[in-house]
Design goal:
Helix content is 69%, strand content 0%. It is mainly alpha-helical.
Amino acid sequence: MPTATSPWLLLAVFSGALISLQSRLTGGLAAGLGGDGSAAAVLSFGSGLLVLALGLCAVRTARRGVTRVVRDVRARRLRPWQVLGGFGGAAFVLTQGLTVGVLGVALFSVAVVAGQVAGGLVFDRVGLGPAGPQRPTRRRVVGALLVLAAVVLSVADKLGGNLPYAALVLPLVAGVCVSWQQAVNGHVRDASGSAYTGTFFNFLAGTGALAVVFLVHAALAGLPHRLPSEPYLYLGGLVGIAFISIAVAAVRKLGVLLLGLCTITGQLVGSLALDLLLPHGGTEVTAATVAGIALALVAVTVAALPGGGPGRVVTGGAPAPRGATTASEPSPDRPRG
């Protein structure tokens, strides 16, 4: 494992643990709002956007980054859809609210991970992320398959036989949306030269999408009758800022697939830590859960090892020779960071 990459792998795993923490906070907030998942989602995203917007007043480089992004979109150096990465996060949160009650957290997680890994493989291959096209190496494919096996193993004793498996389509699509989000957010970071700016645009797009959904839901079902009194339930936005910032900065270093594998592992480890230290409801840590997490750690290590077949693909040409340093060379139509 290259020494320069190791810190980014650890940060990516940490960001996955933060996703688990945010899920716990947002779930608690939704319960406190009488089960209104749309209100909890918009409060989580909206609080993060508010903090980031206030930070723009103090961070000059972030303000300059916003100006660069707007200028690049107008000049078509940055495509408009590349600043809408927050839609992927919004889709994930909404899908969670729609299907977790039907499928359960375990099966929902399996479907999301399957979509995220598949999306990472495809988006790396076509070059959607800022690192450019990457031909999947044998080790990365093996690592992806091992991560899928790890998630299935960790929830195998929680699956039931009378579930509406047709509902798996939504979390599968949500997992692909998460990979898409990680890829396009990296372009905003490159265009702005600031991970802060990339995170800001992510929250801006996500909050806008969720606000529309919330207003429609409120018009049909009404507003929540009360707000929870526990202050910590409102920290989901701050946690989201942390893990989105890491993903925005790390996707160029790791690629979409490897970033996804690391965050998946972090989610498993984070969920285990939360269930052990802060048990919630009827959660129970089993031997299958621990074995699945151990297998996921092995999978990320396998995927991160150098070699294992062709890697980077140079746009418009032949595959780069092994060891060539093409990672830092953006394609002609890709904005320079």
